[in-house]
Amino acid sequence: MTAIPMDGKALAATIESRLKEDSARMIQAGVQPTLATILVGNDPASKVYVSSKHKAAARVGISSRSLTLPEETSESELRSLISTLNADRNVNGILLQLPLPGHLDEMRMIESIEPGKDVDGLTTTNAGRLVYGQTDMIPCTPRGIMEILHHYRIPIGSSRAVIINRSTLVGKPLYNLLLHEDATVTVCHSKSKDLASLTREADILVTAVGRRPQFVVTADMVKEGAVVVDVAMNRVDGKLLGDVEYGEVSQKASHVTPVPGGVGPMTVVMLMQNTLLAAEKQNRLLVPSVPQP
């Protein structure tokens, strides 16, 4: 068996085309969708991530504002900026790039974002609504994973899903999304015992650890015919790798996401989708993805 690569880059391009049409119809209706990003400090990786989001926004037709603050910015200063953006009716989405410098409390800063503009889906309001299946503001990486699974027609209902990650960015929201579609879900983490025995039971295995070479998903950890989603990004000897030992796992799995070109592009395009959804709700618009007759 050779696994089918789940091409997130190609799928993201297709979704971008649809979102570009949605954005154009919104602009025709008199609304310019706008995303504001906040970067505190000079972390090189964060700069790259923010830049990629602004490039995607430009491709889709979303206006974007890039707000960069110095490393020593205080919580009161950052909260004041977020309050200003919350009150600005021309800003539809606010993204606070993480991680923040160590002296800033990430949770307090995230909580200061208006839930309707929380396009990362990280406020407790949106996290709570997700548990009940009542929010559009779903964290971008889990939302992208679900889009990939749906696109490749992966059976989710009654499947056994195992997630190696318990973060609020990936593991916890993905747990709820899979559960809403009737999967039986196990969340694993650094304290899980005999991890391989759990991963070998997975019809859908999602890994998002990012500590290579200390942690690698090898073929002996994967069930024959499983669907493997690799969220992690590791720099090893100048090369970008995921958690999965791709060569050997692809000989055992039925489907697997490559790194790069798998989940990463989907995360960015889901941010664009969330921004348009936020703009629609704030302006009480209905902008269908396919024009109605």
Total count of domains: 2
Global Rg: 19 Å
CATH architecture heading of the largest domain? 3-Layer(aba) Sandwich
State the total count of DSSP E strands: 11
Strand proportion? 15-25%
- Terminal CA distance: 45 Å
Any idea what the CATH superfamily of the largest domain is called? NAD(P)-binding Rossmann-like Domain
Q: What is the residue-mean pLDDT, rounded to a whole number?
A: 95
Largest sheet: 6 strands, parallel
Principal-axis shape: globular
Structural category: alpha/beta
Number of helices: 10
Order of helices and strands: EHEHEHEHHHEHEHEEEEHEH
CATH topology of the largest domain: Rossmann fold
Determine the fraction of residues in helical runs and give it as a percent range: 25-40%
Q: Spatial order of the strands in the main sheet?
A: 1-11-8-7-5-6
Question: Could you explain the architecture of this structure?
Answer:
This protein has 293 residues and is α/β, with parallel strands linked by helices. The protein folds into 2 domains: 86 residues, Leucine Dehydrogenase, chain A, domain 1 (Rossmann fold), CATH 3.40.50; 125 residues, Rossmann fold. The chain is built from 10 helices and 11 strands. The strands form 3 sheets. The protein has a 6-stranded parallel sheet with strand order 1-11-8-7-5-6. It has a 3-stranded parallel sheet with strand order 3-2-4, sandwiched between helices. It has a two-stranded antiparallel sheet with strand order 9-10.
